[in-house]
Model the fold of this input.
Amino acid sequence: MSAKIADNILYFNDKPIIKGINDGFSIAPIPTEQGAFLKVNFPENEGPIALGNLGVFIGAKGYGGSHMRPDTPYWFSPFGSTTGTDIKNQIVWMGVAHEDGSYTFIATLPTEDTCIFINPKQIPAGESTGGEAGFNFFGETGDAYTVVSSGVGAFIINGTNFPQIVEQAANEVNKYIAKAQLRKNKEYPEFARKLGWCTWNAFYQKVSAEKVLEGLKTLKAVGIEPRTLILDDGWQQVAPLKTGGTVLTGWDGNEKFGSMKDFVAKVKGSTSVDTFMVWHAVCGYWYGVAKELFPDCAFLQRMPLRYCDNSVCDWQKGFLNLNPNDFESFFDAYHSHLAECGIDGVKIDNQACLSFQSSGVGGRVKRFDQMRTAVNRTTKKYFNNNLITCMAHAPEIFYNSPENNITRSSDDYFPDNPQSHALHLYTNAMTGTWFGHFLWMDWDMFLTEHPTAKYHAAARAVSGGPIYFADEPGKHDAMLIKRTVYADGTTPRAAAPARVMTRSVFKNLNEAHTPLELVTPFKYGTMCSFFSMVIAGNEKHPAASACDFDIAAVEELTDTGKVYACWSEARQELTTIKQGDSISISLPALEFELLTISPIENGFAPIGFVNMFNTLGAVEDMSKQADGSISMRIHGDGTFVAFSESKPSAVLIDGVGVDFSWENNKLSFAIKSDCEVLIKF
Done:
C-alpha cells in the first residue's frame, strides 16, 4: 500500500483520504507492508503544547473510537458519530467509515517527548465546514520546561475490512515500537485463567483479615471456591500528611492484617486460593510514599493537563511522588517484600497520575517509560507477570507493556449508579477494539447478587479477560457464578478480546436505539453478543435496543456459501444460519443475547457447554478421523451440545460409551471433567 501527501491531500494507492492536511505533516520513511506512519513537524520552540492541522476525511459518513475522558486523566471514553461534530477532544484511536465502503483507521503514537492526540477542529463562530468535520493533531509534554518534539505521531491505514486493517495497524506499530508487544506474543497470566474474588465492592477500605476469611467461608458454603484472591485497598500501613491526603508508611500489612506472610499462608492453607494478589497505588498509596519509609520521594511540580477539566486532581494535592530515577529501587524494595510474604501478583492503581506529575523531570513520556520499565522488570522477577494495570489509560502505558498482558479497560464498576452499567460495557469493548491487540482487557469486578448481575456476568464471560466478582460475605448467586467457571476453578478462554462489531463502532451508543454488538473469536467458532444500551428511566432511550442481525455483518463470517450452527442463549435453541438469514433482536434494559456461531464441517459443528455463558471456550481441539468419526479434546464440565446432521452410533468419553440424545440435529451429552470425546457414526 503506497501512501503519499501531495497538494495537502493524503493518498493511499492514489485514492484521496484526507484533504487540507498541514504542510508540517509528512510520510515517515519507515518500511511498512500496510498503511503509513505520519510524521508531525510541530513549530520549533512552541512550548509544552502545540497544534497541527490534520484536515478533513474525504467522504466520511461515520466516526468511532476512544478519547481521554474530559473529567479525568485516568480513563478512556468511547464515541461514535455520524457527523463528527459531537466528538470530544484527545482522541487516541479513531475509525472513519467512508461513503465508498472503505474504512480509515488512525492511532496516535507518542514521540520522544510528546504525547499526541487528535482533536476535532474548533470552527469559529459564523464559519461553516460544509457538513465536514475537521481534525487537529495536539501535542502535550506535561512539563513546563519541555517543548513539544516533532516525530512520528500516528499510524494510518485504509481498507475495506475494518477489523483486518486494525490488526494490520497493530502489527506495524509493534514493529516500530518494540515495547508495544502484541498480546498474542505474550503469555496469558496464570491468575487470569482462574475464577477470582476481589475485596473492593465487598468491603471497600474497611476490609480486614477476618472479613476476607469470612467471605471465602461463605463462598465455599454455596459451592464456590475461587482460586485467585485480589486483596484491594485497605490492607496497607498508611498515615495522613499534614498537607492532607494519605501516604504509605510501611511495606507490611496494617493492624487489621498484621504479618502478611502469616495471613497469606493462612489463606492458602485453609481455602481454595492458590494465587494471592494485592492492590497498591503506583507510588505506594494515593498521595505517595512517606519520606520515613522511602527518603528519595519528593514533592513534584504539578502541571494541569489541557484536556482534563480536573487534571490537577484536588483529591491529590500535596502529592509525594517518586523521583524518576527512584522507580527501580522503590518497586524492587516493595515487590521483593511482597514476594517474601507469599504474594503472587499485584494490581497497580493510579498509574496515570504521572501525566500531571511530570513537570521539571522531563515530561510524561519519559516519566512513564521510567515507571513502566521498573514495573515490567519487578513484576516479571517477583510475580511471573501477574499484574493488573489500573487507572492507566495513558497511551504511553499501552505502548510500553512488553510482557504485562492484562489491563483494566474502563472506569470502575459502580453497582449503585444505574446510568453506568451500559456505558461500562461500551467503554470496555471500544477500548479493546484497538488496545486489545496489545493487552487482554480486564472488565473489572461485579456483584453476583444484584439486579445487573446476569448482564455483567455474561459480558465478562465473552470479554476474553479475567472473571472475578466482589460479593459481600453471604451475598452470592452461586448458580450465576457457576455459569462462568468450571468445577476445577478455571474459566473458559477466548482466542482474543471481544471487539465491537464494525457497524456498531460508528454509532453513538450512548443514545442508542440499537444494542452494543460484540464479536469474540474462538478456535472453532465465533460468539456474537448483543447487550442492551437502554438505561431504565432515561427518556432519551426507547423501551428496547433492537436490531436485525445477519452474519454478513461479521467479517469473520462472510463466506457466502457457508452454513453455520447457531445456538441462542436467550431461546436455548439450536438452528442453522447463513448469509441473508436475519435474526430479529429486541432487548429491554439489562437484557442480552449470546449467539454461538460454529461453521458446519462434514455435517458437524461444536457448540460447547450450554450451561455456560461462554460455550465455545470448552473446545480445545477437534479433528475428523479416517473412519469419519469426530475427535474432540474438551475442557470443563456440563451439558455439551453440538450440531450433527446424522445420529451418532456412539459417543465415547475417554474411551467409555455414554448416554446421549439426538433430535433435530441437536446432539447432547453430559461431561463431568476434562476429557477426550469420540463421536462415532
